[in-house]
């Protein structure tokens, strides 16, 4: 089954490609030119000088790929200072002057400037003494280069509808790249007002965080745009774009002008984003009880973009697939993705932009909150989607996967250099953060948002630490939840790595609970198991299945008495808690019987959670796989998306290992098992015109059809539709595109593959392009694989700047046993070349390594891979360690479970005949 659902990247606001980021902690910083010791040896700026306002002037030249600039920064000396220290990277500083604000005219030139490459700082000295409470304007002229690096002020290319190549300039500053565009105090706590003037070609225009004030003619064919000053904000939220993009606009009920921008050929794909963002912006204004403080909100689709999107205040940038929606070719899931990303970024406008974390160690709160608010926002604007039951699929699954590793980290973590800051834009900050917020919301209800409102109002246009939020929430919850020490409870979730497994046993009416850290067995587990979480537990029983009971588990073990005998107990009601549950054998057996006979007794989320917990228990060796498979049998009666996808993921893992272990017979048995489970649903949904289906059915249609990708009648129908699409050009339903393209790529004649490649090259639809890469890369034809590898290196058609192109390609190439080993060899052989294009810290590289190592379970190969990464000097990087560990876990799984699973599959085949 190539059906492990490929999730899109969830790193919504993480940039990645930066240079000069390595900072050795013990190294003493010395100015390279003079050999003088840099006067400030810490990573964070001194606090004796505060910037209050910036005026930035930029004049980029896209042809020569460089820019000249000038920044005037108003500063206040808080404590007397010998030098002014601020951030700069790679720009050439051409002159620096200092002018007292109240004695105009008496400017001082800098007497000396020292640089520290490690911390990307400059220290500027003047003859004059900088005394406390003096106010100055620091004026810096500089020049810099524009590259295609996806960080700082950078260039992006695209072909317009006439095939003409157009270059635009855009920015991505979070977390530490503003300093690459202009010298600044580049830390979130140094908030200031920013204004901008930008010189540009006449045929282009400029966007900034604020509305345009004026445009004046400049030299020759140039014009200069001036912008209103911003509200007080952090440097990482500043953004500007020079482009020829077009827009559509609307005004919200509270008078905010919302515009969505893209290149002119994509004008027809902006409608949904505009509708959704107007609605969700109003929803957040209501929920947070603070009006959106800017007069306009621009959303811009940028082709070359490292993250999913970036919440720059009033000027949010998106990768194209996160904003564009074409009803003719985009699927239900594409639309959902657009809604999620917009809701995420717009919630940041309050939580993150209005109130900002003091320092990056609190990133999880910023990102966890936005990742939680995505669902709340989508649910409010699209209530018909019944979307909340998918929260665990999007966040919990990924959080559990990252957090069950030895190499995870607590969500609250100290970061003290750019590399460490970049590293925490990960599943822990985003997905675990979201799960913990969700658990707190479930515990406290509306009271949580009362605390949030108070927090936003108290710290608006300023900074706060996590404890400030917890304090506001605690005060709000004082009367309704006086028995819970929220601070103590949250501390266990934010400072401990990993998450708990709760083992439940039932003896008559006595329920006993024991918690321990959840970890998959591998050959080199090295965990201390002393962690104890304060877990807000919930459960329902066979006697009262509709009314959940709650209790807080504070110690390692606890027990309580039920008022009467029950047939079953189900813990973690509606999957809102960030923990897994295992039951004793009798309890499991009763629960599975109950699901098989009356699945409707359990909520949709509880059915998902039972599947997940049963297969997790099986992987831990606490439940025989037979029992987990027995539970899976109920799925032929399931009609809801979340439990079905949960099961597909679990079976997908087993199938993946069978594939790697070359157990082809067993593999075809598990395919048969799946086909049998889903045959009825397939007959009901597949290949039908989905317009009369409800949303759940529409989503299932895609899933169930792709599940049948090895089912002969399905392949036959898919190829049939592909041919009709080629000639006489009968459109394929958007939701059927993946399966039809898959069949053509893998089972069709080579000419079909070629036709898809040509369609890919000529299309300007970003969603369609990704769908084609996902399928043509699954080919088992060696020539085609080699062709795709060479395209990967060229980086033109399959664009090296587009993360989804790279990650989707590698994921496809490593999805089968022909492409996998060839690709892993290719990555090793061309490592130097590849890491020149994709830095070792980039998301692309993380995805490449993860996919390649996913294919290995042989002990010798694991050791060889480890040696390889050691040689390349990156064996200590977290994602490499995690990938190696995953291989070891898979190897251990094969040893422990493979024989048992093979027997079950054989028996099941006999019984089903
Ligand atoms: Zn975010």
TrEMBL record:
Enzyme Commission designation: 3.4.11.-
A Pfam short name: Peptidase_M1_N
Membrane topology qualifier: Single-pass type II membrane protein
GO molecular function, one term: peptide binding
Binding residue positions for Zn(2+): 344, 348, 367
Domain of life assignment: Eukaryota
Active site: 345
InterPro entries: Aminopeptidase_N-like_N, Aminopeptidase_N-like_N_sf, ERAP1-like_C_dom, M1_APN-typ, Peptidase_M1, Peptidase_M1_aminopeptidases, Peptidase_M1_dom, Peptidase_M4/M1_CTD_sf
GO terms for biological process, alphabetical: peptide catabolic process; proteolysis
Co-factor(s): Zn(2+)
The keyword Zinc belongs to this UniProt entry's keyword annotation: yes
Name of the protein described by the UniProt record: Aminopeptidase
């Amino acid at each position: 089954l190539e059906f492990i659902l490929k999730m899109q990247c969830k790193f919504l606001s993480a940039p990645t490609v930066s240079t000069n980021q390595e900072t050795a902690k013990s190294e003493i910083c010395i100015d390279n030119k003079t050999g003088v010791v840099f006067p400030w040896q810490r990573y964070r700026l001194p606090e004796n000088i505060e910037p209050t306002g910036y005026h930035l002037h930029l004049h980029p030249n896209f042809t020569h790929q460089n820019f000249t600039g000038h920044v005037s920064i108003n500063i206040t000396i808080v404590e007397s200072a010998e030098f002014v220290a601020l951030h700069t990277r790679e720009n050439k500083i051409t002159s620096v002057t200092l002018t007292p604000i109240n004695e105009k005219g008496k400017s001082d030139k800098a007497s000396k400037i020292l640089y520290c490459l490690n911390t990307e700082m400059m220290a500027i000295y003047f003859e004059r003494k900088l005394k406390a409470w003096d106010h100055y304007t620091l004026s810096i002229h500089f020049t810099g280069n524009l590259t295609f690096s996806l960080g700082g002020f950078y260039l992006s290319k695209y072909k317009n509808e006439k095939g003409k190549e157009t270059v635009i300039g855009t920015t991505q500053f979070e977390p530490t790249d503003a300093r690459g565009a202009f010298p600044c105090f580049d830390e979130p706590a140094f908030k200031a007002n920013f204004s901008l003037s930008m010189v540009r070609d006449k045929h282009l225009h400029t966007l900034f965080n604020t509305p345009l004030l004026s445009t004046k003619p400049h030299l020759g064919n140039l014009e200069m745009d001036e912008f209103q000053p911003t509200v007080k904000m952090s440097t990482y939220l500043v953004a500007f774009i020079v482009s020829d993009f077009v827009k559509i606009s609307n005004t919200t009920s509270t008078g905010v002008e919302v515009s969505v921008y893209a290149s002119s050929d994509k004008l027809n794909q902006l409608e949904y984003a505009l509708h959704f963002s107007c609605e969700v912006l109003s929803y957040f204004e209501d929920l947070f009880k603070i009006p959106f403080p800017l007069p306009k909100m621009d959303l811009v689709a940028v082709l070359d973009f490292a993250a999913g999107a970036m919440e720059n205040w009033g000027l949010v940038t998106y990768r194209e697939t996160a904003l564009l929606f074409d009803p003719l070719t985009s699927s239900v899931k594409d639309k959902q993705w657009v809604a999620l990303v917009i809701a995420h970024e717009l919630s940041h406008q309050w939580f993150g932009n209005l109130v900002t974390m003091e320092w990056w160690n609190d990133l999880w709160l910023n990102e966890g909150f936005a990742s939680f608010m995505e669902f709340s926002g989508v649910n409010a604007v699209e209530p018909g989607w019944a979307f909340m039951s998918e929260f665990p699929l999007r966040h919990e699954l990924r959080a559990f996967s990252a957090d069950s590793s030895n190499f995870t980290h607590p969500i609250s973590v100290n970061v003290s250099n750019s590399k460490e800051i970049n590293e925490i834009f990960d599943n822990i900050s985003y997905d675990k953060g979201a799960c913990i917020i969700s658990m707190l919301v479930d515990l406290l209800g509306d009271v949580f948002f009362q605390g949030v409102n108070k927090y936003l109002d108290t710290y608006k246009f300023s900074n706060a630490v996590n404890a400030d939020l917890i304090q506001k929430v605690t005060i709000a919850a004082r009367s309704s939840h006086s028995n819970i020490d929220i601070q103590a409870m949250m501390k266990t979730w934010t400072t401990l790595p990993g998450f708990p497994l709760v083992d439940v046993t039932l003896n008559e009416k006595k329920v006993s609970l024991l918690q321990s850290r959840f970890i998959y067995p591998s050959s080199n587990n090295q965990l201390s198991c002393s962690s104890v979480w304060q877990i807000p537990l919930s459960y329902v029983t066979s006697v009262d299945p509709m009314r959940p009971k709650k209790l807080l588990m504070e110690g390692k073990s606890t027990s309580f008495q039920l008022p009467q005998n029950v047939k079953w107990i189900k813990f973690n009601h509606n999957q809102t808690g960030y923990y897994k549950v295992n039951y004793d054998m009798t309890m499991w057996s009763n629960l599975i019987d109950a699901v098989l006979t009356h699945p409707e007794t359990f909520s949709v989320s509880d059915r998902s959670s039972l599947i997940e917990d049963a297969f997790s228990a099986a992987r831990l060796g606490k439940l025989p796989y037979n029992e987990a498979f027995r539970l899976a049998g109920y799925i032929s009666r399931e009609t809801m998306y979340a439990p079905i996808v949960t099961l597909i993921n679990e079976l997908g893992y087993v199938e993946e290992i069978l594939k790697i272990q070359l157990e082809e017979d067993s593999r075809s048995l598990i395919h048969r098992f799946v086909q049998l489970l889903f045959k009825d649903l397939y007959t009901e949904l597949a290949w039908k015109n989905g317009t009369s289906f409800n949303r759940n059915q529409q989503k299932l249609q895609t899933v169930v059809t792709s599940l049948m990708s090895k089912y002969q009648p399905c392949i036959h129908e898919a190829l049939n539709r592909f041919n009709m699409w080629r000639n006489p050009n009968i459109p394929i339903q958007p939701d059927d595109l993946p399966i039809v393209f898959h069949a053509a790529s893998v089972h069709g004649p080579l000419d079909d593959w070629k036709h898809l490649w040509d369609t890919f090259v000529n299309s300007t639809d970003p969603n369609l392009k990704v769908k084609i890469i996902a399928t043509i890369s699954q080919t088992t034809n060696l020539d085609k694989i080699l062709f795709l590898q060479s395209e990967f290196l060229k980086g033109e058609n399959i664009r090296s700047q587009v993360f989804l192109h790279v990650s989707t390609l590698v994921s496809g190439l490593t999805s089968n046993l022909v492409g996998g080993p060839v690709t892993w060899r290719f990555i090793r052989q061309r490592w130097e070349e590849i890491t020149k294009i994709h830095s070792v810290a980039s998301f692309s590289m993380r995805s490449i390594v993860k996919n390649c190592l996913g294919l290995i379970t042989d002990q010798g190969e694991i050791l060889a891979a480890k040696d390889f990464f050691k040689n390349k000097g990156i064996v200590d990087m977290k994602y490499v360690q995690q990938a190696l560990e995953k291989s070891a876990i898979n190897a251990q799984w094969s040893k422990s479970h493979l024989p048992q699973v093979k027997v079950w599959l054989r028996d099941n085949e006999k019984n089903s005949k």
